[in-house]
Write a structure and sequence with these properties.
- Among the domains are: 97 residues, Calcium-transporting ATPase, cytoplasmic transduction domain A (Distorted Sandwich), CATH 2.70.150.10; 150 residues, HAD superfamily/HAD-like (Rossmann fold); 111 residues, Calcium-transporting ATPase, cytoplasmic domain N (3-Layer(aba) Sandwich), CATH 3.40.1110.10.
- The longest helix is centred in the last third of the chain and has 35 residues.
- α3 runs antiparallel to α4 and α10 packs antiparallel against α11.
- It starts with a helix and ends with a helix.
- The chain is built from 25 helices and 22 strands.
- 50% of the residues lie in helices and 16% in strands.
- It is elongated and about 115 Å long.
- Strands 10-22-21-20-11-18-19 form a 7-stranded mixed β-sheet, sandwiched between helices.
- The protein has 658 residues and is an alpha+beta fold.
- The structure holds adenosine-5'-diphosphate and magnesium ion.
- Magnesium ion binds next to α14.
């Protein structure tokens, strides 16, 4: 018996090893085809759905029969025969489950141990205790399954936003088609009160949309022609025509739903540890059982008493809950975060966030609003408007907030010139644009110096964007961005939640970054960084972090996506509609509410701490009971009831996460 068990345990560990998120780098994880994982003897409650309707009724009958039999005086052979009825009724659920697990190759599990213990008790003449054990087992499993499925239902409800049809506008009128059939360029009609089925741009109509389903925030937006709208959002007030910009497979709604649904397939390290602990526990207890119930009586006799003590050990050998209830806590985390419009790619993200000792922030668009305005123009040998026009022309294709500001300030630009441009965007520096045979550089001083163009020192402190044409310096433009209103509160919130070190990284100049960093109480600032510099800074922090600690990076996922993947966990803010953020980040905050960062860390810490409490209380409580059992102080019903109460206590501890 021992040998097969050892083999089984190896087999099970290997199985779990494969899915251990810790053993894989995040990149590997992301490359992997997402496959749903179900543990043998683990959290796959799906098969139980096949449960026939009769089984609950039979369990109720078992309870009634037990209650009656306790008060009926029976003797001799009448007792086992009478108690066999509730025993069989009570095992309607557990027997097929045990069989299924045995068939699937899982020998070390709660069900098998319960069945063994129950039949041992029955054989020892402890009839009511045997029935009670099975019934209490069902009670705990029912409570556990109920909580688990409640979480699943809640998540499904949040994610019930996938469209099943779209109204395609054709020459012959409107055709109702499946969203998968549409291609970019198609125009669809979205009626008031309908969910927008695909991402696109409004070509006709004015309306308000509500992104609540995706961003978690009920804040209707007024939109009209030219605005981008995202699938999954509600069109509230009037009908609009939308030109589809992305296929359904790449649409926001589908991405969000898939990310959220796949997260479960990447369990936390805590869950992995708990499962391993359970396996060791069961093995150890079986060993103890053999000693107490077989070895000792083989020498000393007293078989009946020793077997009774052995049965108590079997009762206590059973895992209290599936992995101490940890999957439940993490499932709860997925639900609660999805409700606030935050989607994680794996449950292990919560764990990393709970352990985050350092949090690195990118400045533009994360700490600041990412909405620059031009504050001053200092041309050299040309007019202000000319300088702005040159800069805006070169920036025509850039999505950087500085580019947006320059285009806004310049007003009209010649679209013919724009169309003929050859543009290159240099992250963290600026852009170069070839217009005809003239080379334009627009960016920070580092960019111009790289091309040996001398910049003048900015007339006033601030973020200066320098412009040069054909190596001739043309002047600079000062731009400014506003700090997010809640940035200070968010950072304080992180400190309250145990984040020790707050780091600000930016490509912007020190003269702008320093006052900002000191105002917000950052512990460390690195400014004037190119993307490589930011990556190096993250690597440095990663190498020097505490062994159990983790590092989180918060950015917009746009131009810092590659840097984000280097940290333990990358959080992208304002991810709605951003493909790069979706690819790079581990956690997507759909809107730009920076307060969601501390809220998320707080939630993660609760999940992590409660999971920890569950492991400690579960192991500690059980160990105490075992101590009593070994010395024969613990009666069988006491063991049954106390371990049930312990299990329910652990369950409750997980459910109170809010
Ligand atoms: P942050 O590190 O604050 O998030 P970025 O890395 O996006 O900022 O940019 C760093 C600096 O690089 C900016 O402050 C700006 O000087 C320059 N820069 C980057 N992109 C552009 C652009 N498209 N046009 C002009 N300057 C740019
Ligand atoms: Mg940035």
């Amino acid at each position: 018996m021992g040998k097969t068990l050892a083999k089984t345990y190896k087999h099970e560990l290997k199985k779990e090893h494969k899915v251990s998120p810790r053993k894989q780098s995040r990149k590997q994880r992301q490359k992997q085809p997402k496959k749903r994982i179900s543990f043998a003897g683990g959290r796959d409650f799906g098969s139980l759905a096949a449960l026939t309707k009769l089984r609950p009724a039979m369990l109720v009958l078992a309870v009634l029969a037990l209650a009656v039999l306790i008060f009926v005086p029976l003797s001799g052979w009448m007792r086992p025969v009478a108690y066999a009825i509730p025993l069989l009724l009570a095992s309607v659920q557990i027997l097929p489950e045990t069989a299924a697990k045995l068939v699937s190759g899982s020998f070390l599990n709660n069900e098998l141990l319960t069945v063994l213990a129950a039949f041992l008790l029955f054989a020892l003449g402890l009839f009511p205790e045997a029935v009670l054990l099975l019934l209490l087992h069902e009670l705990v499993r029912w409570a556990e399954r109920f909580s688990f499925e409640k979480g699943k239902r809640e998540l499904d409800e949040i994610l019930d936003i996938l469209p099943d049809s779209a109204n395609l506008i054709t020459d012959n009128g409107i055709a109702r088609v499946r969203p998968e059939e549409l291609v970019p360029g198609d125009v669809i009609l979205v009626c008031a009160g309908e969910r927008i089925p695909l991402d696109g741009t409004i070509v006709e109509g004015i309306t308000t949309v509500d992104t609540a389903a995706i961003s978690g925030q009920r804040s209707p937006w007024a939109v009209n022609e030219g605005y981008r709208v995202y699938s999954g959002c509600m069109n509230l007030t009037s009908d609009i025509k939308v030109r589809v910009t992305r296929r359904f497979e790449q649409s926001t709604v589908r991405n969000v739903v898939y990310v959220a649904q796949d997260a479960e397939g990447f369990p936390s390290g805590q869950e992995y540890t708990a499962r391993r602990l359970n396996i060791f526990w069961m093995l150890g207890m079986l060993g103890l059982f053999l000693v107490v119930a077989v070895l000792i009586p083989a020498f000393r006799g007293e078989w009946a008493e020793q077997l009774r003590r052995g049965a108590v050990l079997l009762i206590l050998a059973r895992p209290l809950l599936d992995a101490f209830g940890i999957p439940l806590a993490y499932r709860k985390g997925l639900v609660l975060s999805a409700k606030m419009g935050v989607f994680s790619k794996g449950e292990d993200c919560f764990e990393s966030l709970a352990k985050a000792e350092t949090m690195i922030f990118d400045k533009t668009g994360t700490i600041t609003e990412g909405r620059y305005t031009v504050t001053d123009v200092f041309p050299s040998r040309m007019s202000e408007q000319q300088l702005l026009t040159i800069a805006a022309t070169a920036e025509s294709y850039s999505r950087h907030p500085i580019a947006v500001a320059l285009r806004e300030a310049a007003g009209r630009i010649d679209s013919r010139v724009v169309r003929a441009l050859k543009v290159k965007e240099i992250p963290g520096r600026g852009v170069s644009a070839l217009a005809g045979n003239r080379m334009i550089y627009v960016g920070n001083a580092a960019l111009l110096e790289e091309h040996s163009i001398k910049c003048s020192i900015p007339a006033r402190p601030g973020s200066a964007i320098h412009v040069a044409v054909d190596k001739r310096y043309c002047g600079h433009i000062l731009v400014a961005d506003k700090v997010r209103k809640r940035a200070f509160d968010a950072l304080e919130g992180l400190r309250v939640n145990g984040v020790e070190k707050l780091v600000l990284l930016t490509g912007d100049v020190l003269s702008v970054a320093r006052p900002l960093a000191s105002r917000l109480n950052f512990d460390m600032l690195r400014a004037e960084l190119k993307p490589e510099g930011k990556a190096k800074a993250v690597d440095y922090l990663m190498q020097n972090k505490g062994e159990r600690a983790s590092i989180a990076f918060v950015g917009d996922g746009e131009n810092d996506g590659r840097i984000m993947t280097r940290a333990d966990v990358g959080i992208a803010m304002g991810s709605l509609g951003s493909d790069t953020a979706l690819a790079a980040a581990d956690v997507l905050i759909m809107d730009r509410d920076i307060l969601k960062v501390p809220r998320l860390v707080n939630l993660s810490r609760k999940i992590y701490m409660n999971s920890r409490i569950n492991i400690l209380a579960g192991v500690g409580g059980n160990a105490l009971l075992i101590l009593f059992a070994v010395f024969g102080i613990l009666s069988v019903p006491a063991a049954e009831i106390l371990s049930t109460l312990l299990a329910l206590g652990l369950l409750f501890n997980m459910l109170r996460i809010r």
